[in-house]
């Protein structure tokens, strides 16, 4: 009897070894090593980052920044939207947190790619370099917006939480240095031909176009002009003859677009009302509407109109309609514009103007008039440097509205944010030039310092 | 370690075998034989028969027969058996006739069988801390979820209904919040089969809404349950090792009993209503505050929607047409019908039970809501004629169907709509405010169907007297199917909605096999029990969710084929668990008891190298009332026991695969390739947490056990807790699985008193009272100041402390909110560092319940109340915004000189501090008359004549009355500030007939 018990017991003890708790790996998941062992899955990881630009980033970004300045009105009453509309964002604003965390999630994914791709033994070296450089481009893209919204932010270049979780903020100059380094690597490492179909993954010129913008923001005028010229002279892009089809998939003027699955851009579902008699939630401000010169073709092409009846009274509202599709559309699909040639011309115009090349051959006026001509309006009358700079800023407003918060970024870098928006809104404070660092971040990283004016 | 345990256990076994060889070594003297039976004359096998003051002892065989040798003349025989009164009988002089000893069933709760891990004991002999709830307690409560029936019934067990809807979740915590972020659910074992404890819903989009999470325990019919044991201390829980840290709930279902076949039918019907509606501002007060807000801000209400001063409630909507939205949404009446029929009986060798149940319940919400549940339950038990072989097989199947409307709408946004909000525009279209329209959202529907099968089989064989081998095997299959439809017409047209439908399917399959060997030996005054066993468990969970949109027809929203866009996702989890365990119990003369258990567990939830952990406990008890010197001196003391236990348990209620660095399919497609997204920040270093439990307890019986008192002092200390370690989003995620390098202590007192106040043939009155105090303290946290918890935790304070700005009232001059600041004084815009003031603890400081049972002739009345001393954050917002508010807001600052706690009305959102401050943290203590039950049993004289065994009619009520400070911004003190339907008041009447 004793023997039986001993035998049973021994069986029990020795069978409770590791193989009894070996489990199947989750069938709906792929280990990180496997992801970077196959080009298709590595591209799927990279594609996910591009997709988020439309699905999580821009949809929470452009319209809020346009409300924050003087481009958009708001007809709803959601508190966090109202806070953007009044430019009084609280540290617990959920959209503020969404912008922050979505950019940092993109940065995490870029860092993961940049870390794991070189370790891959199965991917061809060419693919490793290609994907790594695209990840660097995307990381630079994310940091560019982060510093322009929040000022000093944490520069995270690793997925190691021991390095990132309690990191303090870095100087803006150090972050710009990293952005320029990433973009220079990407420009050098990426081919002129677009990876994949269409222009929906970054090539060399996408890196150069973003680099020219970064130099412009740093007031490095010659470098900004050089990069812009390289893009313009690449011969790959041309301005369309009218504003009508600029935002369609594969547009000639697109330097980088974000592919959409059903031919419509996510944020268009918010901006475009369901019918031309419904009240738009985010109507265009009268201020922006009046900023267009008469005869400007962009007014018809990029602005929609809704006539809302209330009793016997009809009120007309305008709304942004650069992107018109709000339901699936396969006949004329729209992709989200990330970088386009018109902006590059305006960057070069500004850089040239700052270098006193105001009129004549190879001048700011040349570039600016290309944009104005396409809009069906007369050449600029500006002839002085300051007059030209004012004209360019005005042109940027009517050309680039609803594109990645350009109004906010432009007013801020040209020092006009407080005078212009302070005049426009009674609730504006000079400290609103920076958005608040979200409460959650301050709670869990005690080394972060809140921006002035926010408690 | 393994070898050491093996050696100790084997050494112990050898010792017992040697001991057993000596049992019959005395020469025979006078030999007597007899039979022990119950009151019906059925034999009682396994009863202990001994001669007083002698060592001679016998255990009755399968026919209840015993033989005693070496008996003295004029001796007294003592017969004892679990569940029966111990009887002393003098040895009859004439032994010619068959000597039959009839035992009376013991009404004394000290001797009631208590189910413990892998065995049974009695409250008298238990060295651990166990609370038991029986079918009699359960059947008095018309609850859907069995957990609700535990509420307030046992010390140390805190049960809160988080949602008043049928199928809603019920939270349970045994002895405080055992874990910060790993699961705090106890381990549920139903007839030996572990049962899923966490909500079944995998995708939060499906779980969202007023229904909250769906509790899997819904699919268990409360009336099928015979008893529930709640294991609390280390001694009781360590046999479950890694899964015992949060306590263990053992559920035993009803089994057939031998004897005449009985049919039992039970039917009740009733109505339900929300017991308390939140107290909100009426239209006039609301409009006054709104106008005042504009005046205070120097603004003029505008009827232009694009204006920041747009105020439709003041400029567009009818200022005289008022709707009480709380009443509109929660003011309905639900109906409940519950039917149960059981047949049971059998021979001495084979018994069976067969039952069926059906329940249907409607809700208080508008629209077509209905919860239905039906099921069958059966079991068969067979014991061989030699009583050596025993096989038990039981199966239950339950299907429930939960149909709900507007599942995705936040309840509080609906209730807090401005009182003059019109449902329709003048043109007949739905009006929406922030996407909310309570009538439109009724078109959003959710239909959840759950199927649950639990099967288990237990086979045992007695190899030798006292030595039994046993194997239990069980299977649980739980499947949930959900369709959630959101038509375009139910959504705000200004947000350009699309109709969309979620199709969800989630199934969990769980298998468990537990071989066991049990050896028990009684020799002289010594009783040994040895248990050895092992567990092999495998659980597989699969779920699929399909998000469908772009339908070609609005009438085809449940048709996958008509959706142009489908976004499927799935998940797969494989969990395995293996362990070996042993327990030795020693009992000397029912005076000194020692119990030791060990368990080694391996779980697939941990990474390689960290999978195995050792757990164990020692418990000891001294029944001092059995000491001769106490018996002779303190005759008022009928029972007295001191016990203590110490042990280590663990917790593996963490998500699977957290050690694996993986990518999963994302919701996004890029260039027709589905994106891959990082699933988590992997950590391959996390390991078992250790939960050290210490307890010392005293059990006292007074006046012939008419008063029973239990006092426990418990202290649980957990180190390296498994947490979702919070990190800032700059890392890419907000948490990762890790061990928290902190020592956290939960300690408290538990007192249980039960008294039989009046005990007369026609009139009895008994009272049960329990109270638990519990305090949580963070003892240590190395390098707290440089961790991501630097702001959140404070050493020496509770780990669940509520923190926020410290409100210092409204400025009497300006009406602005003032908050205390660290630098001294007050400010209306306090710096961020002032956010971490401790406001209180969200854990209750004490809680408990009291039950009074009064029986007069054939009437039985039960009154049960529960109470809790606690504070909770509320839903108060500064007055003046386009949203209704709790009635307390009318007490706002109005003119200079006003001294009040509510700031001035404003349309702005600058004062965001207010909702995060102590102004919004309320005393939520309450006493709730949880249950009243009155029943009448027809006299036997009346029923016998009609061939009825028993006929009982009854009326029952749940949540009859609540006493609390309802001058707060809370919906209900029990369900808290969360926007859920508060617990419902349910009144039912019914009858039970046994044939």
What does this protein look like?
- The complex is a heterodimer of chains A (455) and B (995).
- With 455 residues, chain A is mainly alpha-helical.
- Chain A has helices at 2-15, 32-35, 39-57, 62-68, 79-85, 94-116, 125-150, 161-164, 172-189, 204-217, 221-233, 268-271, 286-289, 297-302, 341-354, 364-374, 385-400, 406-413, 417-424, 439-444, and strands spanning 29-31, 254-258, 303-310, 313-320, 336-340.
- Chain A has one domain: Serine Threonine Protein Phosphatase 5, Tetratricopeptide repeat (Alpha Horseshoe).
- In chain A, the strands form two sheets. A two-stranded antiparallel ribbon of chain A has the order 2-5. A two-stranded antiparallel ribbon of chain A has the order 3-4.
- In chain A, α4 (62-68) crosses α5.
- The longest helix of chain A has 26 residues, at 125-150.
- The model of chain A has no long low-confidence stretch (mean pLDDT 93).
- Chain B folds into two domains: 2-106, Sandwich (Immunoglobulin-like), CATH 2.60.40; 134-282 and 322-720 and 727-800 and 842-870 and 924-994, TonB-dependent receptor, beta-barrel domain (Maltoporin, Chain A), CATH 2.40.170.
- Chain B is globular, with a radius of gyration of 31 Å.
- The relative contact order of chain B is 0.11.
- Residues 1-28 and 200-212 of chain B have low confidence and may be disordered.
- Classes of the chains: A mainly alpha (455), B mainly beta (995).
- β1 of chain A pairs antiparallel with β30 of chain B, so a sheet runs across the interface.
Question: What sequence of helices (H) and strands (E) makes up the elements of chain A?
Answer: HEHHHHHHHHHHEHHHEEEHHHHHH
CATH superfamily of the largest domain in chain B: TonB-dependent receptor, beta-barrel domain
Kindly report the average pLDDT value of chain B. 86
| Envelope shape of chain A | globular
Beta-strand percentage range of chain A: 5-15%
Structural class of chain B: mainly beta
Which protein chains are joined by the largest interface, and how many residues does each one contribute?
Answer: A-B, 111 and 105 residues
CATH architecture of chain A: Alpha Horseshoe
Oligomer: heterodimer
Number of helices of chain B: 11
> Which strands sit side by side, in order, in the main sheet of chain A?
2-5
Number of H/I helices of chain A:
20
What proportion strand of chain B? over 45%
Counting structural domains of chain B, the number is 2
Beta strand count of chain A: 5
Shape of chain B: globular
What helical percentage do the residues of chain A reach?
40-55%
Under CATH, the topology of chain A can be stated as Serine Threonine Protein Phosphatase 5, Tetratricopeptide repeat
| CATH A-level architecture of the largest domain in chain B | Beta Barrel
Q: What's the CATH class label of chain A? A: Mainly Alpha
Strand count, sense and closure of the main sheet of chain A?
Answer: 2 strands, antiparallel
